[in-house]
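Hi D.,

Good news: the full-assembly prediction came through. Inputs first.
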Amino acid sequence: MKKLINDPEAVTSEAVEGFVRAHEDLVVQLDQLVVARAGGAVRGKVGLVSGGGSGHEPLHAGFVGVGMLDAAVPGPMFTSPTPDPILAATRAADGGAGVLHIVKNYTGDVLNFETAAELADAEDIEVATVVVNDDVAVEDSLYTAGRRGVAGTVLVEKIAGAAAERGDDLATVAAIATRVKDSVRSMGVALSACTVPHAGRPSFDLAEDEIEIGIGIHGEPGRRKIPLASADEITDLLLDPVVADLGLTAGESVLLLVNGMGGTPASELAIVYRHARRRLEEQGVAVRRSLVGNYVTSLEMQGASVTVLRLDDELTELYDAPVATAALRWNL
Amino acid sequence: MTTPPAAAPAGPGPDPAGTLDVAWARRFVAEAAQVVAENRVALSELDRVIGDGDHGENMARGFAAVTAALEKAETATVGDVLKLVATTLMSTVGGAAGPLYGTAFLRAAKVSDAPAVDGQGVHSLLDAALEGVVARGKAQVGDKTMVDAWHPAVEAAAAAADAGGTPAAVLRAAADAAAVGAASTDELVALKGRASYLGERSVGHRDPGAASSVLLLDAAARAAGEA
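Then the structure:
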């Protein structure tokens, strides 16, 4: 294992410290491992909190700032944070209008956020929760812990963040977050595994000429291993189940997100985007908004995911609204 | 002067040899911390195969924190100790195991807030812990989770307690049944937790949470002083 680290146990804390110092105009670190907006909670605005295991940067701390999250809770590498820092983040995000927890659907995240929400409730902070589960790779969600939350989470955070910023109340922000969650689907592929620093070896095994279709963001297995194919062929394998699951039809408008898993060159992501966009347009689907880059990563994993969000006028307007975070910035 | 009837039985009242007190609870924590530390790598290895490979690390970190917290704490009852275990695990373990064990110990603490716990009391405590795990994790027997260790453990504890068993005997019965239950997860397809994404590929591997549950129940039995 070759990594640019000091101590495997200190990776998360040192990375958060560096991140916060690099973006001191946007964020501060609280006593616990919590990244919050510089300037604190906005009075009268619904607060947005997300979090989860580290290793998916820029998710979630990279999305703290005006127009998106109020606080993020980075857990240990690939491990959910405990209820204490989630509660601290919830307090920091509470401007008196309640707090929305945006949780990716993993057993640990759900349980720890649930416990933190109970603790917040005992302090009279109103909490609503949306659990993001956009990963269509999980086919039999009845017989598993359900579909996982992956790259679609960024879009939930962006659009719900804009709703909170324009002054919507907690129920409305939660309803919009739920609408995004219900309208977004993703599927990913891994060309190589990633190595958790304290584990010291790859989290799963892939042969030199093998790829895993439907990979999760922690290296959880997907639908199947197949031999390496061309970018266009792989893109089809990712896009088709997403389009089918959304039930997209000609004439609809979408946002297309091609997300890198951490170890994929921008050029390869552009090649995936090129084909996905062509395929959607061939089906009469209008790609109104696009996002291409590393947003929800899996350490140094080589791979990508394709995410499609069905857009309506309101979701488009909220997506376009100003945002100022470390990883997304526009229309300021 | 009258003498009490010599044949009067002690009855079901407090019997120093037949109950567990706060000292047992503290011994249990020490035993558990040791055995979890010893099995840190083994538990993480089970987890690497069908989860994310950190169960041993997380549990070892949690019980080290429990040991440190207990050194500084005043505890009068079994419940006091178990509550401290609960809150410390919840705030240090993370993952799914933190809230699951945290809730289990919290529920057990609620029914053991007494200076002494007898055989039936041990069963109630284990039963409350299982209810906590099920309430939080919503898993059932056969889902390949820690419930597959806890459910038979509680059944065995009930039978041992009903037969008039000492707390040590009740805990031993529970630990042994948990070990059989954990072994049964080898052949199960995971339906809950991260291992569920493996589907059929989870068969042939033991559930890490069931394995750590056996370690804890066995530590509790050994702390109760059975041979």
